[in-house]
Specification:
Helix 13 packs parallel to helix 20 and helix 14 crosses helix 20. The chain is an alpha/beta fold.
């Protein structure tokens, strides 16, 4: 099923390299003059619109990239993903996060969805109460990585859809205790519900925070209160038993859902608490609409396919190996943090699926922040610095409230202006020559705009599915497995050794470890 060959040894790769050399002579300022070209790069899919016109590509580039995709059997690879083939070859699993949002999902998946949504609604309505018979007002999700970033982001993005009955949903991930302390500072144990979210239920950070939360709760309300105040999402039933999670407050995960693809599963329980079951179902429906577009649209009109192919183009043929994500809607502020795991844990690989070392660059680094504040922070570096970067601007045509309509329009105008200046550049036409050089914007810096009509659970689902599938497309082009993450294991093992040393005989410590110990003693 997988093409076994090294993609960089094929003739299409060489043709793309040659083409990139030719295109250097045609900067974006020139390409953007061709209105027909620009119009052909404005792509609609589900309710999203993607503007790829500020990527340094022509019709020929796209023809070559589509040919490359066909060489790599991308169509078959998409079908393999969506139909549950064993695409995660190193762990011997399918990657069926798309099944979680498919109305035709297997009964077991639909039943679990109904179960956790019912639970969330019961908490929201006050039907489900704490040990002192008070309704929950604070919900604290304890998890890390995929068990934190997706829900944390989605709750921040969609809190506005939650209505008056929504509890205050908070997140705790970091190991050192400060985030937990902050989350608990003004919380009342009697009205606080914890969700321990851990696929494995063995993750050090999550277990440390969960034990801290358990102590806090038991100290205030007694051991007997634990089952009423803890829910959990995991594949590890024995660990949930040991912790004391009640049978009716535990929700299943499946090993065919990777952590960073899991917000659609019961890992999304905290999202459902914040926005309610109906909105959660809309989130799933939006993602499913994008899955359908991904499966059915021709490659040339397929938003995730083009996004992924153009990422490969930038990474391997134009040498731009960073991606910035800049949302121009403050509710999407955590999008870059969420995408960092999705993109970099998935594409941070240097061997192909067959174990052979890659001879080309794989995933770009990804970072970003809210677009508007970024203009007064690192935008200078973007416009006049020497690094090679691609930007994804993400905007919503309509903002949160009519009261802010004017401010939102200004914000969108700034997004367009940033993309335009990056692409076209500018040169002051008069003045001292040296000063003109300082003030010049070189331009020719590519970007994409992803536009949503407004931020709803459904459009958010579509946006996230675009990125999930773009990542998959890139992995197929590079022949790597995006669904494992062995690179995070070694650090965990060494941390256990260092922890034992730091707590042991100080005479055996040297260097900075000795200094840590000296300053702690
Ligand atoms: O960082 C590694 C990782 O395995 C992620 O892929 C995952 O999302 C995270 O740890 C948390 O794992 P768990 O849900 O098992 O606690």
């Amino acid at each position: 099923m997988e093409p076994r060959s090294d993609p960089s040894r094929g003739t299409t790769w060489s043709m793309l390299e040659q083409h990139a050399n030719t295109l250097i002579k045609h900067p974006l300022s020139e390409l953007l003059q061709d209105e027909a070209r620009n119009a052909s790069l404005l792509i609609d899919g589900a309710e999203l619109c993607a503007d790829f016109s500020r990527m340094q590509v022509t019709a020929e580039t796209l023809d070559l990239l589509i040919k490359f995709a066909e060489d790599r059997e991308l169509g078959n690879a998409i079908e393999a993903l969506l139909s549950g083939a064993m695409v995660n070859n190193t762990e011997g699993r399918a990657a069926l996060h798309t099944a979680l949002r498919d109305p035709a999902a297997p009964t077991e998946v639909r039943d679990e969805l109904q179960k956790f949504l019912d639970y969330a609604d019961a908490v929201r309505s006050g039907e489900r109460r704490g040990s002192t018979d008070e309704a929950f007002r604070t919900v604290i999700n304890i998890g890390i990585g995929g068990s934190d970033l997706g829900p944390r982001f989605a709750v921040a993005a969609l809190r506005h859809a939650g209505g008056d009955t929504a509890p205050d949903v908070r997140f705790v991930a970091a190991l050192d205790g400060i985030e937990l302390r902050t989350a608990l500072a003004d919380a009342d144990p009697a009205t606080t519900l914890f969700i321990i979210c851990s696929k494995t239920f063995t993750t050090l950070e999550t277990l440390t925070n969960a034990r801290g939360a358990r102590r806090w709760l038991a100290d205030a309300l007694g051991e007997d209160a634990i089952p009423a105040h803890f829910a959990a999402v995991s594949v590890n039933a024995a660990a949930m038993d040991e912790f004391g999670v009640g049978a009716d407050a535990r929700f299943a995960m499946w090993d065919w859902v990777g952590g960073r693809y899991s917000l659609w599963s019961p890992v999304g329980l905290s999202i459902a608490m914040a926005i309610g079951s109906e909105n959660f179902r809309s989130l799933l429906a939006g993602a499913h609409a994008m899955d359908t577009h991904f499966r059915e649209a021709p490659l040339r009109e397929n938003i995730p396919v083009l996004h992924g192919l153009l990422a490969v183009w930038q990474q391997n043929f134009t040498g731009r190996n960073q991606r910035l994500v800049l949302p121009y809607d403050e509710r999407l502020r955590l999008l870059p943090e969420y995408l960092q795991q999705l993109w970099m844990e998935s594409l941070g690989k240097s061997v192909r699926k067959n174990g052979a070392a890659v001879r080309y660059r794989t995933g770009a680094s990804l970072w970003g922040s809210g677009g508007s504040p970024a203009q007064h922070s690192f935008a200078q570096w973007l416009h006049q610095g020497s690094a090679e970067t691609v930007v994804d601007y993400v905007g919503t045509a309509n903002g949160l409230s009519d009261d802010d309509a004017e401010a939102h329009l200004q914000s969108l105008a700034n997004m367009l202006a940033q993309a335009e200046v990056l692409a076209r550049g500018s040169m002051p036409d008069s003045g001292d020559e040296a000063l003109r050089a300082h003030r010049a914007h070189p331009g020719n810096r590519p970007s994409t705009i992803l536009l949503l009509p407004e931020l709803t659970p459904a459009t958010l689902g579509m946006l996230l599915a675009v990125y999930e599938h773009s990542v998959y497309v890139q992995s197929v082009m590079w022949g790597i497995n995006p669904f494992d993450q062995f690179g995070v294991e070694q650090g965990k093992a060494v941390a256990r050794e260092r922890a034992a040393e730091l707590a042991g005989d100080s005479a055996k410590l040297t260097g900075i470890a000795r200094r840590i110990r000296d300053w702690r003693d």
